[in-house]
Amino acid sequence: MTQSTAAHHHTAGNRPTDGIVTPEAVVLDLETAGFASRLVAALIDLMIVLLGLFVISLIVLLTLGSAGESTVITVMAFVVFCALFGYPIVFETMMRGRTPGKAALRLRAVTVDGAPLTLRETTLRAMGGIVDKLLPPGGITGVLFVLGTPRHQRVGDLIAGTIVIRDPQQYRPAPALWFSPPPGLEPYSDLIDPSAITTEQYTVIRSFLTRVGTLAPNVRVALAADLADRLGRTIRFPRHESVPPEAYLLCVIAKYQRSVGPATVRW
């Protein structure tokens, strides 16, 4: 197995790949979704919500129609709120940043550093969606923000610290590239359980490791430390102080590749 420290940068056509920007302003290759694809995904989700509301409305009218108009209105107001607010929270939490609409367009919401969404981010995105869609009605606020921000972020994205990317799992494979632990750290690498690592995180780490030779030394050290810290929290195996951050990343990714193979990242 070989360890790569050569520069590597891959884009397809002229697609923007400025979706993930580290705190050190280093761009890593995840393509942000544009306005058109986000709009189509949102329309698909809206149709699903409206269809669901139609079915539920019929059920409410059939079961509570005799209870009085005020009761029906109260129940339906609650149902509408749950549908508009709960739909994105439930699906983005359960489907790791996707709704049915996003899945159909091969999109996924992630944090600005490429990590999967938690319940906190999905809730904040949904809260921001109220501003995006309803203030004023018609979604004009969300449209203006998506068109006017460099990474196509609506208000909900800005509040939650998220972006929407084209799902790396749907891109064509990058060439297989094996990483190996630094000499002497093989036993340390064997202790790591990489099962919690997502494809998005692997994409970011792989991108860093294949281009470390092109980074300024201070940026390389700072970025390696930041990525190692985030990765350690994900896999619940913090870096030992005797292991340099870059070596730690190699140990984790090497173990990940031995578990699932080198070509799981898509570009």
Task: Figure out the total of helices.
Answer: 10
Residue runs with pLDDT of under 50 for 5 or more positions:
1-27, 263-267
The percent range for helix content is 40-55%
Q: What oligomeric state do the depicted chains represent?
A: single chain
| Rg, nearest Å | 22 Å
Strand content bin: 5-15%
Distance between the termini: 22 Å
How many DSSP-defined strands?
4
> Number of folding domains?
2
Mean pLDDT: 80
Q: Can you summarize the main beta sheet? A: 2 strands, antiparallel
Name the structural class.
mainly alpha
How does this structure look, described?
The protein folds into 2 domains: 35-169, no CATH class; 172-260, no CATH class. It is 54% helix and 5% strand. The protein has 10 helices and 4 strands. The strands form 2 sheets. A two-stranded antiparallel sheet has the order 1-2. A two-stranded antiparallel sheet has the order 3-4. It is mainly alpha-helical. It is elongated. α2 (69-94) packs across α4 (119-134).
